[in-house]
């Protein structure tokens, strides 16, 4: 894997509308197939003098990163936004996970009703569609992606296996601290989605959220 970390400093005359346009344009870069993962955000402003915006981009290798640079959406992003809104940047690149796993590609769950489960995972956790799998015109599976965390979840029609996994926590999603868990559970409450109360887990707190087939999606804090 080839990783590029880019810290940006806004131009002095860049307005908030300019910066928001820059963020939206960066989001559009996900359409470039060579880009494996993208995370970005504003500086937390804990220390004076920091650069003001950072992006972390992952590619399968350096050759893929070079193709990304030459891709038309990236060229347009540079000319229409970066050259106008950014005053300075610092770039760090490194290679990691050579000949070793770099993460989970996706997790697949059986579902008795793919459309119902797709809607639920979007409503509960913010997953969005990435790809559909149809057989003879009938929806049999979907690939979902979480836009903030670069997580992928696949759902495949299989009612028998869905029943067999009911009550089992096949998937565990991470949140930062207890306050993040509480905020997520509050959003689930607002959406009318049942969940358990938080309990002490391994080095943190955990709660379970049953999906439409009864699979327990566990939410666990990192601290």
Q: Secondary-structure map with pairings?
A:
Elements: E1 2-10, H1 16-28, E2 37-42, E3 53-59, H2 62-70, H3 72-85, E4 86-95, E5 107-111, H4 114-125, E6 128-135, E7 138-146, E8 151-157, H5 159-164, E9 171-175, H6 178-190, E10 199-201, E11 204-210, E12 216-221
Parallel strand pairs: 5-8, 9-12
Antiparallel strand pairs: 1-3, 1-4, 2-3, 6-7, 7-8, 10-11, 11-12
Helix pairs in contact: 1-3
Core attributes:
223 residues, alpha+beta, Alpha-Beta Plaits, 2,3-Dihydroxybiphenyl 1,2-Dioxygenase, domain 1, four-stranded antiparallel β-sheet, 12 strands, 30% helix, globular, Glyas_Fos-R_dOase_dom, Glyas_Bleomycin-R_OHBP_Dase, VOC family protein, Dimeric_a/b-barrel
What can you see in these coordinates?
Pfam families: Dabb (PF07876), Glyoxalase (PF00903). Residues 103-222 form the VOC domain. This is VOC family protein. It comes from Pseudonocardia aurantiaca. 30% of the residues lie in helices and 37% in strands. The protein is built from six helices and twelve strands. By secondary structure, it is an alpha+beta fold. The chain has two domains: 2-95, Alpha-Beta Plaits; 107-221, 2,3-Dihydroxybiphenyl 1,2-Dioxygenase, domain 1, CATH 3.10.180.
């Amino acid at each position: 894997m080839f990783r590029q970390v880019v810290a940006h400093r806004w131009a002095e005359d860049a307005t908030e509308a300019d910066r928001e346009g820059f963020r939206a344009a960066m989001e559009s870069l996900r359409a470039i197939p060579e880009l494996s993962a993208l995370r970005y955000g504003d500086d937390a402003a804990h220390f004076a003098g920091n650069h003001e915006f950072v992006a972390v981009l992952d590619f399968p290798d350096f050759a893929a990163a070079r193709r990304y640079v030459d891709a038309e959406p990236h060229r347009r992003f540079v000319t229409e936004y970066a050259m106008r809104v950014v005053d300075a940047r610092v770039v760090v690149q490194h290679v990691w996970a050579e000949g070793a796993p770099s993460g989970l590609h996706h997790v697949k769950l059986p579902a008795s009703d793919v459309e119902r489960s797709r809607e639920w995972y979007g409503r509960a956790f913010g997953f969005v569609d990435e790809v559909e799998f149809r057989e003879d015109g009938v929806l049999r599976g979907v690939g979902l992606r979480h836009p903030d965390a670069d997580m992928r979840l696949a759902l495949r029609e299989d009612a028998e296996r869905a029943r067999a996994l009911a009550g089992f926590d096949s998937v565990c999603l991470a949140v930062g601290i207890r306050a993040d868990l509480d905020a997520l559970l509050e959003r689930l409450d607002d959406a009318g989605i049942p969940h358990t109360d938080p309990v002490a887990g391994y080095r943190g707190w955990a709660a379970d959220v049953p999906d439409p087939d009864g699979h327990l999606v566990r939410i666990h804090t990192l601290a």
